[in-house]
Amino acid sequence: MAILQAKMDAAEAMIAAVTPQSGGAWAGEARKRALDSLRKMGAPHRRDEYWRYTNPADFLNADAPQAPVMELDEGMPFAMLDRVRLVFVDGVFDPAQSDEPAVDGVEIEPITTAMAKDIHWVSSIYGVLESSGQSPVSRPLAALNTAQAQQGFAIRVTGKAAKAISMVYLRSSETADAMVHHVVKLEPGADLTLTENGPAAARANMVLEVEVADNASFHHIRTQGRDHLRRSATHMFTRLGKESSFKSFTLTMNGILTRNEAVIEFTGDDAHATVAGACAGDGNFLHDDTVFVTHDAQNCESRQVFKKVLRNGATGVFQGKILVKPDAQKTDGYQLSQALLLDDNSNFLAKPELEIYADDVACSHGSTCGEIDADAMFYLTSRGVPHAQAQDMLTLAFLNQAIEEVESDDIAEDIRARLAAWMARRAG
Amino acid sequence: MLSIKNLQVSLQDEDKQILKGLDLEIGAGEVHAIMGPNGSGKSTMSYVLSGKDGYKVTGGTATLDGVDLLDMEPEERAAAGLFLAFQYPVEIPGVGNMTFLRTAVNAQRKARGEEELSAGDFLKLVRSKAKSLKIDADMLKRPVNVGFSGGEKKRNEILQMAMLEPKMCILDETDSGLDVDAMKLVAEGVNALRSEGRSFLVITHYQRLLDHIKPDVVHIMANGRIIKSGGPELALEVENNGYADILAEVA
Question: How far is B63 from chain A (nearest CA, A)?
Answer without folding.
Answer: 17
